[in-house]
Every structure is written in structure tokens, then in C-alpha cells.
Design brief:
Mean pLDDT: 92
Strand order of the largest sheet: 3-2-1-4-5-6-9
Radius of gyration: 18 Å
CATH superfamily: NAD(P)-binding Rossmann-like Domain
Helix content: 40-55%
CATH topology: Rossmann fold
Number of helices: 8
CATH architecture: 3-Layer(aba) Sandwich
CATH class: Alpha Beta
Largest sheet: 7 strands, parallel
Distance between the termini: 30 Å
Number of strands: 9
């Protein structure tokens, strides 16, 4: 496959480093994005010399528009893939102590950043011969608990937004009976219980982590998105939890 230009958001995290590294190793041009300049540069260095770090406040629509403009200064006219790894977790004891502060943080990280990135880059992903948008959700959406109510609700909202993007791709690329069009863009959801940082496994070599997904497994799934037909991927919830 022709190398794609892929944007990894939340690139300072262990999963962001793993995804950027795997995508670059597969031959794609990778831009990795974080809100802290020093951290994202360090993360890009861990991911490999082919990965370009970018600094952006993804919760600001204007900042994301600026990110798109900055990418164009690198000679890139179109982003083909967005792997959205921004999230965060907040929990409580139950329903009554779900704080507004926690909700605002979760909404900002899980929903607002996704809305901004997908809106700014939607037309590029839709125009790409292999456009892909992926976000990471949680098994908590299907089985929410009182303690994680805000977290599960924010993830559910992010999933709903992603499904709407998938519908947008489907409608834009449906063609008609006389001139059918093969769908070429897809939006998907990776579902995990929790992501396992390699450092945690190294620190606890004898410990078992049931249900956890290695960040390398998530990275491999991100690379694999470009190897499968869009029509078979679009709108899918792909379970990576073991």
C-alpha cells in the first residue's frame, strides 16, 4: 500500500509512542501530537526519527485548525489517518460524588478533543483513498458502574460521535445504482478494558494483568486499519480486551 500520512493524537502517552513507532515502521509518515512541547518531542524521539512532533491544545478548535495549517507547512496536503488516543480516567465512590470537575475533565479529554480533530480533518479523511479515524473506548460503556459513571458516559458520547462520523463517510461514499462507489474511508472504535504500559509489565514480570491490552497490540491494530477494506471496518467496535 502507498504510504499514508497519519496523525497520532495523545502522542505523549505510552500508547501514543507505540502507535507512532508501529505506523512509522510500516512506512507511513507520522505526526504525533501532544499539549506539552517537551513531552511530545521526547515521545517522538522514543518513537523514531521518522516521527514528527507537533504541539497543540486539542480541546481548542482554533488550535486544531492551526495544527492543520502547520502540517501543510511540511508539504502535506492531506492527512489520511487519525489515531485518537486522548482520554484520561476519573472515578468516584458512586453516583452522588461524581464531581463537576471530573466530568468537565472527561468531557474535554474524551469528547471535545475528538469533536475538534474529526471536524477539522474530516474532509481530508473523506477524500483520502484510505481514510481512517480510530478512537479508543472502554468496556465500561457496555457495563457501566456507579463509580465510573462520568467516565463511562463520556466514552459513550465519544463512541456516538465516532459512529456519526462513520455514517458521514458511508453517505458521502455511497454513490448510486448507476454508478456505485467503493467506500474508501472508515471510522472505528477500539474497545479495551485498560491499556498496559510496557514499563508496568517490566516492573512486575510475574504479575498477570487479566483483561488488559498491551499498547503494542493497540498499535498493531492501528497499523492494520490500512490493510482492510473500509466497508468492513466502518462503524465497527473492535474488541481488543482479552
Amino acid at each position: 500500500m502507498t504510504p499514508m500520512t497519519v496523525l497520532v493524537t495523545g502522542g505523549s502517552s505510552a500508547s501514543g509512542v507505540a502507535a507512532a513507532r508501529a505506523l512509522a515502521a510500516a512506512g507511513h509518515r507520522v505526526f504525533t501530537v501532544g499539549s506539552d512541547d517537551a513531552r511530545i518531542k521526547a515521545a517522538a524521539g522514543q518513537a523514531g526519527s521518522a516521527v514528527t512532533p507537533m504541539t497543540c491544545d486539542l480541546a481548542s478548535l482554533d488550535s486544531v485548525r492551526g495544527l492543520a495549517a502547520d502540517i501543510r507547512t511540511h508539504g502535506i496536503e492531506r492527512v489520511d489517518g487519525v489515531i485518537h488516543l486522548v482520554g484520561g480516567w476519573r472515578g468516584a465512590k458512586g453516583i452522588e460524588d461524581q464531581s463537576d470537575e471530573d466530568w468537565e475533565s472527561l468531557e474535554r479529554g474524551a469528547v471535545t478533543t475528538l469533536r475538534n480533530v474529526s471536524r477539522v480533518f474530516y474532509s481530508q479523511l473523506e477524500a483520502s483513498p484510505h481514510g481512517r479515524l480510530a478512537m479508543v473506548s472502554s468496556t465500561a460503556v457496555s457495563s457501566p458502574t456507579a463509580a465510573a459513571a462520568s467516565y463511562a458516559a463520556a466514552k459513550a458520547a465519544a463512541e456516538t460521535w465516532t459512529m456519526a462520523v462513520a455514517d458521514g463517510f458511508r453517505r458521502a461514499q455511497s454513490g448510486n445504482k448507476e454508478q456505485p462507489v467503493e467506500q474508501h474511508s472508515a471510522a472505528v472504535i477500539f474497545v479495551v478494558k485498560a491499556l498496559l504500559d510496557p514499563a508496568m509489565r517490566r516492573e512486575h514480570p510475574d504479575r498477570r494483568f487479566p483483561g488488559y491490552t498491551d499498547v503494542e497490540e493497540l498499535a498493531a491494530a492501528a497499523v492494520g486499519l490500512f490493510d482492510h477494506p473500509a466497508a468492513s471496518l466502518n462503524g465497527q467496535r473492535i474488541l481488543l480486551a482479552k
